[in-house]
Amino acid sequence: MLAPWLVHLVLWPPLLVSVVHIIGFTGYTTWISFTSSTLIPENDFVGLRNYNSVLASRNWTIATENLLIFGTGFVVLTTAIGLTLAVLLDQRIRAENVLRTIYLYPMAVSFVVTGTVWSWLLNPSIGIQKLVRGLGWEAFRFDWVVDRDMAIYTIVIAGAWQASGFAMALFLAGIRSVDADLYKAAQIDGAGPWRIYRRVVLPAIWPIFIAVMVILLQYTIKTFDLVRALTGGGPGIATQLPSLVVYDLMFQRGLLGRGSAAAVLMLLYLLAVLLPYFAFVQWRKRRNARHG
Amino acid sequence: MSALRIAGVRKRFGAQEVLKGIDLEVDSGEFLVLVGPSGCGKSTLLNIIAGLEAPGEGTVEIGSRLVNDVEPKDRDIAMVFQSYALYPTMTVRQNITFGMECRNVPKRAQDEAVERVSRLLQIDQLLHRKPSQLSGGQRQRVAMGRALVRDPTLFLFDEPLSNLDAKLRVEMRLEIKQLHRRIGATIVYVTHDQIEAMTMATRIAVMHQGEVQQFADPETIYNRPANLFVARFMGAPPMNCVSARVVSAGDGLAAVIGAGRPDAIQLPLSREAEAGAGAFKDRAVVLGIRPECIAEEDRRFGADERGSIAVEAPVEMTEPTGAETIVLMRLGGEQLLGRVSPDVRLPVGGNARFAVDARKLCLFDPATERLIA
Ligand SMILES: Nc1ncnc2c1ncn2[C@@H]1O[C@H](COP(=O)(O)OP(=O)(O)OP(=O)(O)O)[C@@H](O)[C@H]1O
Ligand SMILES: [Mg+2]
């Protein structure tokens, strides 16, 4: 047993630090977003002026559009790849542990490294395009990363590459948690493997789908380093995302007020994803409690 | 006609041999119960019959057809699992029709089949519900329904009642028994509950450590257990098994509990028992006597009175159950259980007189533990 004073010593300082950092700084940022602060914080209330100007800017519009494309593409692609890998790994193959580790590795790599590596791979003059052309397909083109319309999809690809292993791990855990007797019952019922997954296993793990999608979605909203390292938001501002806009306003242009407004908007996006999810989790808990 | 024939089935998981050569033959319409303690390989054997697990050695025939290489779905079987294994995201109706859907049964025939079994099992009110909205007993019924729509050669039940409370269990036990009589199906039923085995089976296979200890009808299993394991496993409270000595008494043989002690008890052996016991004359044996064969002193066993022997013994403990009183006594230095009528008041710590039914004594070889008489 720890002495009571030690318990308090261990418990309170970290709690205090967290509260100050999370609640305190969020509150401070929110306050700044309502002031005319530029390089240094001011304390004059200017209402929604910063919000209006952020929302009216082309930068923010493009960032939001990109967020929608990236968010949808990333979540769908990552879920699809993760699920496919999980189903393939579920076939009781010999090298399962090795493969699982390999698939999970990208997760351990930081987004900056992923971004940098993929920026090389996708660079037409040194990456995949050069490789395929070197193999003889002279007409091969893969220059999305420098194409204004396609660049955002390269971020989807790199992001999916990194996060698929994580999605796979969650799906595999879910699939494995399905009662083994259900497989047996389905086998006796005469269902083939495909039908067993489609009708029995995957429907049984739908809460995991929701969890995976929410986790991925909040990833996309916070994404910064991946884009920064892969395209730097370019070409031009073609792959701008909200987090890059915040960074740009606050630290490149020295507009603290507007940057804070953009940051608060990001927080609202995040809440729009997380609050319904928490409500959903609560609802499920209550329903399970009722049905025992 | 034989509905199921299992010959020389062995199975090992890694280094552990779970089934060590199982031979069973079940006739059409029989209710076979596989009973044994936890971990003895009952489920493994059932899975092998179902084709969910491959035997290491041996053959399985269902309806006179060798099915070793036949897929579970083509074996013409239906199975009810201990966990019920209802598909959680499907409604009761979908759970029942899923198998027919996989077998491309036309929609009309599916509806008729659902109609038939839901009425039989009284689940017609539940068809639109999800399994999570059902009680344990209702889930059990749905699981049965899923098996019954199939009309298979063989039904396999893996401890279908073990998740129910005691009262529901008794009800469902009766229901399954009636169902068996009504549809005349062949059933292989796994349980570790010896009362379920005794009440439902037409034949019982008692398993222990991957081997069938005895395969016989319930009466034989109960009255003539093939070895000490079966004797101790079947029956509650279990059979008293105490060491005894075979001696000659008059023109016959008798078994003596506590030979050489002043309180030794001598129980005459029946004519049939003497045949097997002869070889053990003046040697030690294990005597098996059911608790219901030791009762209050004025109890008469059967028509003739010769089998009834009066003894006096110290009472160590009594356990009234309502319908009867279980009594722990000491006979010839050995502890034995008896069952007396509930209105007999026994002096705990004092002596009481009992009547012993000596007609159904079992004698076992202490070395091999096999039944000798
Ligand atoms: N897939 C498996 N891998 C390894 N060992 C197994 C496997 N399945 C069963 N066993 C072992 O085989 C033995 C028999 O298992 P089985 O499930 O047949 O027992 P059971 O008689 O059905 O017991 P219970 O009454 O507890 O259900 C057990 O010791 C178990 O640990
Ligand atoms: Mg079992």
From TrEMBL, chain A:
Source organism of the structure: Neoroseomonas lacus
As for subcellular location, the record says: Cell membrane
Q: How does it sit in the membrane?
A: Multi-pass membrane protein
- CDD domains associated with the record: TM_PBP2
- Cross-referenced Gene3D superfamilies: MetI-like (1.10.3720.10)
Which protein is depicted? ABC transporter permease
Task: Give one Pfam family, short name only.
Answer: BPD_transp_1
Q: What's one GO BP annotation on this UniProt entry?
A: transmembrane transport
Q: Which UniProt keywords apply?
A: Cell membrane, Membrane, Transmembrane, Transmembrane helix, Transport
- Family assignment? Belongs to the binding-protein-dependent transport system permease family.
Report if keyword S-adenosyl-L-methionine is assigned: no
The answer to whether UniProt assigns keyword Transcription regulation to this entry is: no
UniProtKB/TrEMBL annotation, chain B:
Pfam families xref list:
ABC_tran, OB_MalK
What SMART domains does its record include? AAA (SM00382)
| Keywords of this entry | ATP-binding, Nucleotide-binding, Transport
Q: Which residues form the ABC transporter domain?
A: 4-234
Q: One GO molecular function term?
A: ABC-type transporter activity
InterPro entries for the chain: AAA+_ATPase (IPR003593), ABC_transporter-like_ATP-bd (IPR003439), ABC_transporter-like_CS (IPR017871), ABC_transpr_MalK-like (IPR015855), ABC_transpr_MalK/UgpC-like (IPR047641), Mo/tungstate-bd_C_term_dom (IPR008995), NA-bd_OB-fold (IPR012340), OB_MalK-like (IPR040582)
Q: What PROSITE patterns does this protein's entry cite?
A: ABC_TRANSPORTER_1, ABC_TRANSPORTER_2
GO cellular component annotations of the record: ATP-binding cassette (ABC) transporter complex, substrate-binding subunit-containing
A GO term (biological process) for this protein? carbohydrate transport
Identify its protein family. Belongs to the ABC transporter superfamily.
> What is the protein's name according to its record?
Sugar ABC transporter ATP-binding protein
Annotated source species: Neoroseomonas lacus
